[in-house]
Amino acid sequence: MRVFVTGGAGFLGSHVSNVLLQAGHRVTVLDNLSAGHRDMVPSGAVLIKGDLKQEAKLREWLKGHDVVIHLAAFVAVPVSVEHPVAFAENNVVNTVRLLEAMRLAGVRRIVFSSSATVYGLPRRLPLGEDDPLGVQSNPYGATKVSAEAFVAVYQRLHGFDATILRYFNPYGPNELCEPETHLIPNVVQAALKDEPIPIYWKGEQIRDFVYVEDLAMAHVAVLGQQGLNYFNVGSEKGVKVNEVLSAVTDILDRPLRINDLGERPGDVPALYATSERLRKATGWQAKVGLEEGLRRTVEFFRERQAQKPKASRRGAGN
Question: Which of 14, 250, 265, 283 is 20 to 30 A off residue 6, Cα-Cα?
Fold first, then answer.
């Protein structure tokens, strides 16, 4: 297939582009490089430096492609609270621009990058795709609910084949977000610098951490799905933040410095998935365990810090 990947120079996009190429697909990456990195785009992919706001050009760029994997989005939850209009414009309006450009270009298949945040506060665990969507506590989550709705509208009105992937907690190499708000990259980078790691709720929160290469493989697995599909993508294992800290301690073979910040309003105590629907539909399942995934992540950041030392301090989001 000819696959058009928006946001393909970012954390997840670079891995998705790579696994697509390994599977024999032809890949075009669209990225404005505001947060992505040119050097993370695999050499076999065609890179277009452009923006989803360029509607006329977007239609031309899309022509001849079989499927779009839409990853381009703002993702920092705290920033979404400060800049809700920018998040709505980038995550929702740009998604509609893309869908309309696809319609006009004759591309009728999309894989959309969504999030477990759409479920809000879980009523039961593990979360399944038939669980109701929850009231959102931040604009980022609201943009994902809205964008999902527009994808579904285009599937019903225009006969798109649309697959919505709801990610749980991706982690791994190439995660270079600014600002970084995710737990694992902040823990690893602070630990490598021997800096205090801010932790909330005494590290008792439970999350579903899925290694980025496993997550990327899910996008390849669903390329042939027809109709409208919703799939959770997670490891299906609830892991306490303290287990992450313990594993990083073992990998570095020294104790970590912890800054206990107590409770934090708005945090969900536990969140983890069942990915049974995806497994039955495609055979996909997470393969890289937490310890191995963390070891690879530590090695990535260790090499990066050795190449370009920085003295910045980061807070660990959970």
Answer: 283
Token code pair at residue 43: 């050499």
Residue 8 sits in a domain whose CATH number is: 3.40.50.720
Say if residue 59 is in the same domain as residue 13. yes
Tell me which residue has tokens 């995660």.
175
State whether 35 and 125 are in the same domain.
yes
Statement: residue 290 has pLDDT above 60: yes
Name which of 97, 110, 205, 208 is nearest 155 in CA terms: 110
Residue 133 in tokens: 């969507």
Same domain? For 224 and 189 the reply is no
Q: Kindly state whether residue 316 falls inside one of the protein's structural domains.
A: no
* pTM for this entry: 0.93
In the annotation, is 211 catalytic? no
Per residue in 84-125, pLDDT tens?
999 999 999 999 999 999 999 999 999 999 999 999 999 899
pLDDT of residue 244: 97
By residue range, what is the domain housing residue 121? 2-170+210-233
Which pLDDT tens digit goes with each residue over 48-79?
A: 999 999 999 999 999 999 999 999 999 988 89
Which of 119, 140, 167, 272 is the catalytic position? 140
